[in-house]
């Protein structure tokens, strides 16, 4: 059974998912460079004050975009934790 409207919605969702993955890939390329820079400069893998600023900034953006700020914080926290894990791994290699 085919539903043209549902298919159109799903195509849009697929396009958005593709964009999200590409954006995350670009973000992780940059954060990987940051991790190498921090390791060479002797900086810690985590920056709690920067993380707090980013979370607050993105919570505000989420509210203005009518997205649940708690969801956006959980999503960002997951990304930040993964970035820190990568930075720690890079630091161990230097």
From TrEMBL:
Instruction: Name the enzyme group at the top EC level.
Output: isomerase
The EC number(s) attached to this protein equal 5.4.99.5
Question: According to the lineage, what is the superkingdom?
Answer: Bacteria
Q: Name one GO molecular function term.
A: chorismate mutase activity
Which residue intervals define the domain Chorismate mutase in the entry? Answer: 1-91
UniProt entry tagged with the keyword Methyltransferase? no
Keywords associated with the record: Isomerase
Q: List, alphabetically, the PANTHER family matched.
A: CHORISMATE MUTASE
The protein here is known as: chorismate mutase
């Amino acid at each position: 059974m085919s539903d043209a409207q549902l298919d159109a919605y799903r195509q849009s969702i697929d396009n958005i998912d593709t964009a999200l993955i590409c954006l995350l890939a670009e973000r992780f390329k940059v954060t990987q460079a940051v991790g190498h820079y921090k390791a060479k400069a002797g900086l810690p893998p985590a920056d709690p004050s920067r993380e707090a600023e980013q979370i607050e900034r993105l919570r505000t953006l989420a509210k203005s975009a009518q997205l649940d700020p708690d969801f956006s914080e959980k999503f960002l926290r997951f990304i930040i934790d993964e970035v820190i894990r990568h930075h720690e791994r890079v630091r161990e290699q230097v």
